[in-house]
Every structure is written in structure tokens, then in C-alpha cells.
């Protein structure tokens, strides 16, 4: 495992570079990301490049043994470029250009912007593509499916629609524009549904707009990567991402890239309500699932966060070390901390790095130094990966469609995924979070929550999986929409009805109201948000409603289909239901279960095919004790043990 830092040499006096690099080396830092936002320093005037300072920085870092991630700084076009070509500026939902002076203001569809982006990228790659210290490249920063309403985007969107549907008549048909006299008689009448919230907009138009925005940003990444590889075919390219409100289709975004990198900022305050999600394990598994392989953390929590929001608490003792190792436990092989030193100027001066404004290393830095030491003992993990029996399907498109039309109070796409994830994880299972179109054949159980918008490839994939003997879990709000985001004229769950062996005769979106269900064993659980009232055809009831006029109607079902089994969860419960449900499925599918893990203790396993390494992470503020089934060797303590004692946020890794 390699530990690194994000460093912004352009923000510090030159006299500090060497001191910083020396301290990095002494601390055990191995990787440094630079130049992420440094366009104005690299090209201070149009076509005038100044790379000498970067040569110096790279030489200093190299001298101290650092590997370098070099960034293409296109997130921050320089002021002269905005002034000379204001048409590159993104246009907001108010039809006004976004005020410059912050960052991320470029329209990724602007040809002028792309010309400049291509030029700076080419210059950097030509100069440093063969540099022995430069090991990887980062394109831009936290790219999203930006909605931009500039003239270029509008024109491209209209062409995108014409390409897809061939004619204006077909567009009218697909969008169902007879509603509210919305029929278009010319392409120019089609406008981006830019006024958010989108409740009053046409959902079919909204989903296509999202798809267009995804294609735009993904096309930008693909083209830039192509330009870079044309000069230096062997370079390794990534971009750093997270799950934002405008999350693009990450599966497509990373297709042309070599590896996934994640910006990992787990919350530092453990919520009082145990139903509130806390662990970031789900997001780490999602990042691994994007390409189905190990990933990097390009930015890792290092101090109190804040700037554009009030500051959070400072990471508790153990978190700097623990959360990096938690990322390792879920497949991150390299973790860079954001950032080496806290900015003294600019908007993010209170988003803290490892070293505070004082430039005096303190508690967090010393813990980071310990992390570097620990990481240096973990090279045996480098060749391992996670193999999972359980998968949860994450679909950016369903996530977005459910944002366009929130279904009921409190109903949240990611929450349902996270409930299932947390439930399987409670028993120490590795869980993959993957695309609905991923190869599912190796999984013992696949959970496909809220398959809201129909996608042929995904639906066929699920049928194939079950026919092949798999165990599938489907939920409420599946098969609701056709691929155009319009409702299907058939009883729910429409395309999945045969798999489920039951149909929804009526539904009750109860929002925040709480009711109960009772499972086959007589256990009662709270349910809320959504109640599908089910009529069984071939399925059996797993749980029934205890209240309301649909008391005794099935709420959760189980159906045998070919050689597989399909569960349908028609409502939304709290964590206790999902835990018992996952436990039953694991028993039935023969998945190993670790029972009685203390609350907050997370267990994953990485393997190299010969040896398994079990990670025990105490993601809680209480001490935890785990008794092992037999004595095992801890590679953290270099000692055999049969019990594991963990302080808050402490990790132990044992060889099985
Ligand atoms: C993101 C960005 C960083 C920085 C941090 C902290 O992860 O990628 O550049 O802005 O957030 O705000
Ligand atoms: Zn635009």
C-alpha cells in the first residue's frame, strides 16, 4: 500500500518545496499529486508556456524519491482565457453565465475550450510523459454531468435528440408532448429542462437531458485521454471522482481510463440516530465496482472539512490512520491525503490538510506518519483483491430518474442500496457494488434495488442470472418506466413480473408514516415510505403487512424461477429487517456468516488466490473485542493471536 499527498507547490514559496519534500520523504510519503489547478502558472498568457517551475518541483520531488501524479489543470481555465473567449463559460439554469473567479466554469462542450484544453494537455504530456518520476495522470477534477445551457450545449442537445430519434415527430411521440400542449413544431423550441427543481418539467425530456450531459462530460474525458495517448501511448490516466448531486455515468466515464480514483471524505461525526448511515464502506465498494478492480483514493480526509459549509469536527484520534486502512480493506491500493498543508489563501483555507496554517506538524500529522509506517509493512496486500459472493447493483440512470421524480417523502435511491449493503456487511461479507449490466454469474446473491427505468440489457441480465440458478432481490419501484422514462401500461413490476411471481395490485406511498410488517417467522418490523400491495401468482409470502386496509397482504415475497430464487421487497424498512433478511439469504445460499460482530466493526477479506487476509476495522467510538475461530497471524502486529482488541477506528489485518 502506498501513501501519498496532494500538493500545490504554486501556492507556497519556492523556499518551502525542498523542506516539504524532505519532510515527506522522512515521513514515508511515496506519491504526490501536483498541478491540478495550476493552468494560469503553466500558461500565463495565450500560448506562452512556463514549465520551468514545474520542472524544478518535479526534480525536487524526484530527488526525494516521490512518484508523481501530474494533473491536466483544465478544471481552472485562466482568467485571460475567459476574457478572450467568454463563450467557454458555463451557463446556469437562469440562462446567465456563471461568475468566473471560482473554478469549474468551463463548458465541456465548448470547442474553443477543448482546443485550449487539448493544447495544455499535449504540452504537459510531451514534456513529462516519459519522465521516470511521473507515474500517472489525472484529467481535470471531480467531473460531473454538468447541466450547461449555453448556445453550444442547446444546439448539441437538439442534434443529440435528432440522432437518437430521427425526427421531430418521433421526439414528440417519445416525450408525450400532447400533455399541456407541449408539442414541438421546430427543433429550436426544445429547451434544456434547466429550471431545477424539475417537478414541472417533462420527465422524458429530463432523463434525456441527463443522458446528454453524461455523454458530454464522458466524451470530453474520452477525447482528452485520446489526445494524451496519441502523444504517449503508455501513460496511465485517471480522473478523481465522487458521488455528487450531478453524478455522471461513472461506468462510462472510466471506460477509456486506466483506473478509478475516489475523493474520500467520510463524515467524522457518528450520528446519534443509528438509522442514519455513517460508514463510507458502501462508496468504497462502489468505486471498486466501477471497473471491477482495485482503485486509488486521490483525496483522503486529513482534517476538519469546511469552506463552502461550516467546518466539521476534526477527525477523531484514529481516523486519519483508520479511514485510509478502511479504504485499503475495500480495494484502494494507493491513498493520497488531501492535502499536505492547509491553504493559507483562497476559498478553501478552512478545508484542512495534514499540516495546519502554523506549519507546525501536530496530532493529525503524527498519526499520518504512523500510517505511512504501517503502510510500509503491508506490501503483501498489494497483490490481493476482494472476491465477493454478494453484489448490489448501482445504476446512475435510476438514481437520476428518481431524483427527477422523488417518489414519496424520505424515499431515496442510494439509501435502499445502503441498507442492503450494510446488512450483508454486518455478517462480514464482501459486497461488490456493480452495474446492472455487469457479469453476475459468480455471485451467490444479487440485490437490484429500484430498477425504475427499463433497460433491456439490464433486465435480460437479471433473467439470465436467475435462470442460471442465482438468488436475486428486487424491490419496490421496479419496472415502473420504459426506457424513455414514461410509465408502462401494465401491472407492476411489469417486465420483472415473471421473475417475481407476484403483481402489485395497488401501492400506498406512505412517506414518513410508520407501519409494520410481520415475516414468516412472526418477527415484526417497521416499514415506511412505500407499500406495494401484492397479489401472489407463483410466489410465496415472506412477510405481510400488519396494518391498514391491506393488513395480511404480502409485503415481501419469495419465488422460485427456473433454477433460481427471486425475492421482492415491496416496502422500505429499517436496518433490523434488512439484517434479518440478509442473514436468511446468506444461510440459504451457503454464504459464510460471521455472527456477533460488535456494532461498528467492519470485516472484509482480500485474497491473492493462495492466502486470505481478513481486515477487522472498528468504525466506532467504543473499544471492540473479537474472538477469532482459531489463532491467526496479524500482519499489523507481526504476531499470532486468537482475539483482536481494537481501539476506536483501529484496524487489524490477519492472515487466515
Ligand atoms: C474536492 C476537490 C478538492 C477540494 C476538496 C475539498 O474533493 O477535488 O479540490 O476542493 O473537495 O473541498
Ligand atoms: Zn455549454
Helix content range of the residues, please? 25-40%
Assess the beta-strand content as a share of residues. 15-25%
- Shape call: globular
Low-confidence stretches: none
How much is the average pLDDT? 97
The CATH class of the domain at 390-589: Alpha Beta
CATH architecture of the domain at 390-589: 3-Layer(aba) Sandwich
For the termini, the CA-CA separation is 19 Å
- The total strand number stands at 24
Summarize the structure in short.
The chain is an alpha/beta fold.
Explain this structure.
The protein is of the alpha/beta class and 656 residues long. Among the domains are: 1-147 and 215-258, Alpha-Beta Barrel (TIM Barrel); 390-589, Class I glutamine amidotransferase (GATase) domain (Rossmann fold, 3-Layer(aba) Sandwich), CATH 3.40.50.880; 601-655, Sandwich (Immunoglobulin-like), CATH 2.60.40. The protein is built from 17 helices and 24 strands. The strands form 3 sheets. The chain has a 10-stranded mixed beta sheet with strand order 11-10-12-13-18-17-16-14-15-19. Helix 11 packs parallel to helix 12. The longest helix has 29 residues, at 203-231. The chain is globular. The mean pLDDT is 97. Alpha-D-galactopyranose is lined by residues 141-142, 240, 263, 299, 307, 338, 348, 351.
Amino acid at each position: 500500500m502506498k501513501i501519498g499527498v496532494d500538493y500545490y507547490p504554486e501556492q507556497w514559496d519556492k523556499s518551502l518545496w525542498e523542506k516539504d519534500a524532505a519532510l515527506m520523504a522522512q515521513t514515508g510519503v511515496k506519491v504526490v499529486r501536483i498541478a491540478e489547478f495550476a493552468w494560469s502558472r503553466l500558461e500565463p498568457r495565450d500560448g506562452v508556456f512556463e514549465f520551468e517551475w514545474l520542472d524544478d518541483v518535479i526534480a525536487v520531488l524526484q530527488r526525494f524519491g516521490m512518484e508523481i501524479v501530474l494533473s491536466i489543470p483544465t478544471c481552472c481555465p485562466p482568467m485571460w482565457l475567459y476574457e478572450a473567449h467568454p463563450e467557454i463559460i458555463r451557463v446556469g439554469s437562469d440562462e446567465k453565465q456563471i461568475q468566473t473567479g471560482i473554478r469549474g466554469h468551463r463548458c465541456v462542450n465548448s470547442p474553443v475550450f477543448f482546443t485550449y484544453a487539448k493544447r495544455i494537455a499535449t504540452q504537459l504530456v510531451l514534456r513529462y510523459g516519459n519522465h521516470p518520476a511521473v507515474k500517472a495522470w489525472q484529467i481535470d477534477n471531480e467531473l460531473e454531468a454538468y447541466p450547461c445551457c449555453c448556445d453550444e450545449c442547446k444546439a448539441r442537445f437538439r442534434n443529440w435528440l435528432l440522432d437518437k430519434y430521427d425526427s421531430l415527430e418521433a421526439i414528440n411521440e417519445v416525450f408525450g408532448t400532447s400533455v399541456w400542449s407541449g408539442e414541438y413544431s421546430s427543433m429550436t423550441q426544445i429547451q434544456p429542462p434547466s429550471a431545477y427543481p424539475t417537478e414541472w418539467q417533462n420527465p422524458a425530456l429530463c432523463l434525456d437531458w441527463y443522458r446528454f450531459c453524461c455523454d458530454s462530460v464522458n466524451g470530453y474525458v474520452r477525447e482528452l485521454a485520446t489526445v494524451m495517448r496519441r502523444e504517449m501511448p503508455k501513460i496511465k490516466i485517471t480522473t478523481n471522482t465522487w458521488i455528487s448531486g450531478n453524478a455522471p455515468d461513472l461506468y462510462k466515464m472510466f471506460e477509456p481510463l486506466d483506473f478509478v480514483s475516489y475523493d474520500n471524505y467520510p463524515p467524522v461525526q457518528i450520528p446519534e440516530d443509528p438509522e442514519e448511515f455513517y460508514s463510507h464502506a458502501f462508496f468504497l465498494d462502489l468505486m471498486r465496482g466501477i471497473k471491477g478492480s482495485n482503485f486509488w483514493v486521490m483525496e483522503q480526509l486529513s482534517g476538519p472539512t469546511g469552506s463552502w459549509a461550516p467546518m466539521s469536527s476534526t477527525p477523531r484520534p484514529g481516523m486519519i490512520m483508520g479511514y485510509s486502512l478502511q479504504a485499503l480493506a475495500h480495494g484502494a491500493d494507493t491513498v493520497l491525503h488531501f492535502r499536505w498543508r492547509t491553504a493559507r489563501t483562497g476559498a478553501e483555507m478552512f478545508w484542512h490538510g495534514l499540516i495546519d496554517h502554523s506549519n507546525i506538524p501536530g496530532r493529525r500529522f503524527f498519526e499520518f506518519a504512523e500510517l505511512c509506517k504501517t503502510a510500509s509493512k503491508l506490501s503483501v496486500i498489494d497483490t490481493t483483491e476482494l472476491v465477493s459472493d454478494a453484489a448490489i447493483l448501482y445504476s446512475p440512470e435510476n438514481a437520476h430518474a428518481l431524483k427527477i421524480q422523488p417518489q414519496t417523502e424520505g424515499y431515496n435511491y442510494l439509501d435502499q442500496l445502503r441498507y442492503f449493503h450494510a446488512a450483508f456487511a454486518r455478517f462480514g461479507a464482501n459486497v461488490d457494488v456493480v452495474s446492472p449490466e455487469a457479469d453476475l454469474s459468480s455471485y451467490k446473491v444479487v440485490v437490484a434495488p429500484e430498477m425504475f427505468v427499463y433497460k433491456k440489457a439490464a433486465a435480460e441480465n437479471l433473467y439470465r442470472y436467475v435462470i442460471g440458478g442465482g438468488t436475486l432481490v428486487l424491490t419496490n419501484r421496479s419496472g415502473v418506466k420504459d426506457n424513455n422514462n414514461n410509465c408502462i401500461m401494465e401491472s407492476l413490476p411489469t417486465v420483472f413480473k415473471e421473475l417475481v411471481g407476484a403483481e402489485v395490485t395497488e401501492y400506498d406511498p406512505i412517506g414518513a408514516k410508520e407501519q409494520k410488517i410481520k415475516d414468516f417467522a412472526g418477527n415484526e418490523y417497521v416499514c415506511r415510505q412505500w407499500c406495494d400491495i401484492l397479489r401472489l401468482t407463483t410466489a410465496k409470502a415472506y412477510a405481510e403487512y400488519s396494518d391498514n386496509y391491506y393488513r395480511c397482504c404480502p409485503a415481501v415475497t419469495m419465488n422460485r424461477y427456473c433454477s433460481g430464487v427471486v425475492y421482492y421487497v415491496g416496502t422500505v424498512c429499517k436496518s433490523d429487517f434488512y439484517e434479518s433478511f440478509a442473514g436468511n439469504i446468506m444461510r440459504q445460499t451457503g454464504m459464510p456468516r460471521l455472527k456477533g460482530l460488535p456494532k461498528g466493526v467492519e470485516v472484509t477479506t482480500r485474497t491473492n488466490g493462495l492466502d486470505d487476509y481478513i481486515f477487522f476495522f472498528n468504525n466506532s467510538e467504543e473499544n471492540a473485542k473479537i474472538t477469532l475461530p482459531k489463532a491467526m497471524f496479524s500482519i499489523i502486529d507481526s504476531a499470532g493471536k486468537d482475539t483482536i482488541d481494537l481501539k476506536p477506528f483501529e484496524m487489524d489485518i490477519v492472515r487466515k
